[in-house]
Amino acid sequence: MDKKLTTKDYTYIASMLFGLFFGAGNLIFPVYMGQLAGANVWPAIIGFLITGVGLPLLGIVAMGISHSTGLFDMASRIHPVYSKLFTCLLYLTIGPFFAIPRTATVSFEVGLATNLSDGMASLYLAIYSFLFFAAVLYFSLRPSNILTWVGKILNPIFLLSLGILVVTALLNPMGAVSDIPVASSYGTTSFFQGFLEGYNTMDALASLAFGIVVIKVIRGLGVKNPNTVAADTVKSGFFSMTIMALIYIALAVIGAQSRGIIEIAANGGAALSLISKHYFGNIGGIILAITMIFACLKTAVGLITSCSETFAELFPRSLSYKTYTILFCAISFSIANIGLSNIISFSIPVLMFLYPLAITLILLSLFHRFFKGAPCIYQSVTVLTLFAAIFDFAKALPDGVKNALHLDAVLAFASHYLPFYDLGLGWIVPAVIGLIVGLIIQFYDTKIAGAASAHPEK
């Protein structure tokens, strides 16, 4: 008989989920979005919560409902080769290419960058990121102690520090949100901009990687029935994501209010540092910086460990876990030194490509049983989504790259023929068409199979 989880169990799982998801990007992007959205911050928040909270929750639930053993298993319903490529690209994105370097640059931006002259910032970033990833490498090779210590002690200190900042800022706002000017990009499409901004948290991608971790924990607590596991996953995920949603809302509002006194910062890390110093001076900035460094260190160790284990498992005859750990730390160090703003800029095209594929995989897995997991539906939806996602990727490239590749005609074609393309959502209609095509193929396959079974002599 299945064990019935207690409130303490749900709290434990939700806390673990929060620790897995809440990293550097979860702090900086809502603040920066608030600065840009200004008076239009509320529609932007709603859009942000859909992709920053709703999709990660659905990703975790999809993993449980579809009874998958992990991302590779879930994506294998499309094709084994596609599954391996998608898994590698997703882990590299939430790992050494973007998310892990971001942990170093965010903690640097919040802790040190605002106190340095522009001429010295690059040198100090190099020194800081080297020490940061040296520590990440040390603990990634022996992760249990740092993850336990940081998770139980430093994470609560970090959240307490953040809570003090949030409450202080909300009680003593720098300005009224309704009076804050709106950046041009948030003028008439603030909801859609917030929706796309939620991509930057990378949490929907992470949910596909970490969902199996939650399921294993629930099973380890004595819950064996797949339906009960799925239900407990939903409850734990909902609790954790509700906390994250409240933090996002508060940070976005504070970001918008900050425009009453400070200008739009270069990025969310710089904005958060300036806001902290406004309320607490240099001491407050130092306290926030220290807790931020350890929180980011914990996140980086977790991601390095997860990525190294995944690649060692996917390619058992390649490199060892230790070698992957060293390699990924070296890559992360190199990318961190291009700076936070550049990391964000280069990550956007990749996220515009990956997110549509992740969203459709999550939705198909959620409704898996309604179409009996027919491969033709997975394949047709994914192929057409992939086609449209390439155009979304091209549109999000830096202007210099687009000009060098002479993409004007390609982008003009997509803008003319793909609905919602100009909003960054050109994949939606192709995905729906793919679903319809897949359902038609499934219908005729079922009809032909039925006829063959009814007349076996033929």
TrEMBL record:
Pfam families: Branch_AA_trans. InterPro entries: Brnchd-chn_aa_trnsp_Livcs. It comes from the Bacteria. The keyword Membrane applies. Keywords: Amino-acid transport, Cell membrane, Membrane, Transmembrane, Transmembrane helix, Transport. The chain crosses the membrane at residues 12-32, 44-65, 85-101, 121-141, 153-171, 238-258, 279-304, 324-344, 351-371, 377-397, 427-444. One of its GO terms (molecular function) is L-valine transmembrane transporter activity. GO terms for cellular component: plasma membrane. Component of the transport system for branched-chain amino acids. This is Branched-chain amino acid transport system carrier protein. It comes from Trichococcus palustris.
